[in-house]
Automatic annotation (TrEMBL):
It is a multi-pass membrane protein. The keyword Repeat does not apply. Belongs to the mitochondrial pyruvate carrier (MPC) (TC 2.A.105) family. InterPro entries: MPC. This is Mitochondrial pyruvate carrier. The keyword Transmembrane applies. PANTHER family: UPF0041 BRAIN PROTEIN 44-RELATED (PTHR14154). GO terms for biological process: pyruvate import into mitochondria. Mediates the uptake of pyruvate into mitochondria.
Amino acid sequence: MASFRAFLNSPVGPKTTYFWGPVANWGFVAAGLADMKKPPEMISGNMTAAMCIYSALFMRFAWMVQPRNYLLLTCHASNETVQLYQFSRWAKGQGYLSEKKDKPASQ
C-alpha cells in the first residue's frame, strides 16, 4: 500500500499531466493500429508525415524534461513506429517505393 501511495503522490503519478498526457496520447497509437487494415489509398501522406514529426519532437521532449517522462517517451516511440509503417504503406501505394528488380548481369 505504501508503494501505491508513493506512486500516487510522485511527480509523474496519476495526479499530474505527466501521467494523463501520455495516457491520452495512446489514442494516436490505437488509431494507427486500427488503420493498418484500411487500404493505402485512404492514408493521408501529409497527416502521417505530420504525426511522424510530432512524435519525434515529443520523444525528445520526454527525454529532456525533468523528471524524465518514460511513459510519454514510450507512447511516442510506439506512435513513431506505427506512423512510419503507415507512411511506407502510403508511399508504396503512391508508387514512390517500388520493388527494385535486379537486372541480369551482362557478360
